Amino acid sequence: MVMKYKVMPEVVVDIAANLVGIRNGMREAVKRRPSSLPQRDPVLVAVSKTKSLAAVRQAYEAGQRHFGENYLKELVMKSTNPDMTVICPDIKWHYIGMFQKKMASVLMRVTNLYMLETLTASQEADAVNSRWKGTEPLRVMIQVNTSGEESKSGASPEKCVDVSIHIYNKCPNLKLSGLMTIGSAGHDYSTGPNPDFELLWKCRTDVCNALEIPMSDLDLSMGMSADYEEAIKAGSTSVRVGSNIFGARDYSQTSKT
Ligand SMILES: *Cc1c(COP(=O)(O)O)cnc(C)c1O
């Protein structure tokens, strides 16, 4: 055991133990949800951006199946790696980075693409819809800019209803799976619930009313390392957790494209 620390040049992160910790935290948060909220178990998406294939593999071997990446080139490289497709055949990749319609053809190169979480406009949906050749429709979420910050991408709450209607009626190769937000960082929970989470909840109500579908048909992807427990208490059904699983990210080695 001691050897491990001497041999490895970088900080040793116990990914399997971290996953156990997060799953426990999720279970506790589910118990503290108001009974008015849907009681289904939230999905954990392990965000592996900038992390190695070895790290992804460790998480996979610890039972993790859903992974998220937010640099498209990195996702194509990781998902198409021959080792990955052999060792992690059942992996489910979520693309959670900024998306534009010109990226649609690159997105099609991802192996085991499970979901695109970051659609923001109808033209982007069309670009993916016309290219997707999967056996079942590609799951998509609409990213909503709930905090109204210019630095964050995402449809406005009003526009997300229009984009939902478009996907629902005009994109047979896409399945509208839910809404996603990043939200503003550092909310002080002593002042009350996170307004970003409350707004995403309201967006879903509006979308479900417009489409005349039950609320249980749409997931809410909200909550990251710092606030996944609070997000679950606020009704999140999908949390995206990176650094709490894989350790802090080092951006000095990576290009930001
Ligand atoms: C990086 C990232 C995350 C994970 O962030 P952590 O704070 O490391 O958990 C979640 N969602 C998106 C969109 C991200 O880019």
TrEMBL record:
Pfam families: Ala_racemase_N (PF01168)
Keyword Transport: no
N6-(pyridoxal phosphate)lysine: residues bearing it: 49
Keyword Magnesium: no
Keywords: Pyridoxal phosphate
Domain Alanine racemase N-terminal: residue ranges: 41-249
InterPro entries, alphabetized: Ala_racemase_N, PLP-binding_barrel, PyrdxlP_homeostasis
CDD domains: PLPDE_III_YBL036c_euk (cd06822)
SUPFAM superfamilies in the record: PLP-binding barrel
Entries under Gene3D superfamilies matching the protein: Alanine racemase
Family in the record: Belongs to the pyridoxal phosphate-binding protein YggS/PROSC family.
PANTHER family given in the database record: PROLINE SYNTHETASE CO-TRANSCRIBED BACTERIAL HOMOLOG PROTEIN, PYRIDOXAL PHOSPHATE HOMEOSTASIS PROTEIN
Function: Pyridoxal 5'-phosphate (PLP)-binding protein, which may be involved in intracellular homeostatic regulation of pyridoxal 5'-phosphate (PLP), the active form of vitamin B6.
Protein name: Pyridoxal phosphate homeostasis protein
